[in-house]
Amino acid sequence: MIPPIANRFVAGETERDVITHARVLDTEGINSICNLLGEHYDSPEPAAADRESYCALIEAIGEEDIDATVSIKPSQLGLGIAEGCFRSNLELVVERAAEQEVFLWIDMEDHETTDATLDAYTHHVEEYDGIGVCVQANLKRTPDDLRRLADYPGKVRLVKGAYDEPGDVAYREKSRVNEAYRECLEIMFAEFDGGIAVGSHDPAMIDDAEELHDEHGTAFEIQMLMGVREDAQHDLAADHEVYQYIPYGDSWLSYFYRRMMERRENLLFGLRALVGG
Question: Which keywords does UniProt give here (predicted)?
Fold first, then answer.
């Protein structure tokens, strides 16, 4: 059972928990991205188990009258074992998503997985355009990747990048990452017909997206994490399509720890909860 201190960032341990959270958000005008926690498997069995869990989640969402999508990590479906393992598991998940008409996001992990992830996305999105992929602004290759992806249907989520990448492939200074994010946004709004997802809690990046929308008229959506700037999510939902990324599952502890460590506000929240303040 997830302790109350973690409930701010994780919906629960079960499929029903995440569906219930998504249903509440739907009444508040916020859409959902449901993610089963788990990654970096080194044997086929847990990858196959999560594949089946995602198929079941997709069916459950298909039965609900809510705006909810699903997001998966390639290593969760076996990319760390073999690319063939990942591709075969992903194909089954994509087939189920297409059957239920549920949108499917493919998350991006470290830079060594970028090619395999983008290749899988471009392969499947030609047949089912209800797919999106995440790209990371801190990677120096991302502008070229975006120009390539502009020719495909589907959606692209732009994030700053959370992995500790080497300096030869990624920008490491915060100011340079912010600059790269803005450069990537400019490419997307100029060259994409739509399908732009701004994955950021940074008000400055969201302001830039709004300015680029006014300039180019290209539609976009905003994506934020459960438990982070939720007041802003509700405010933004009055004028924009907003999605909340909702994690769930029994692998919640490491995810909760990352959320605590990444922002001072989150750490203060955790400390107050521990002392009962």
Answer: FAD, Flavoprotein, Nucleotide-binding, Oxidoreductase, Proline metabolism
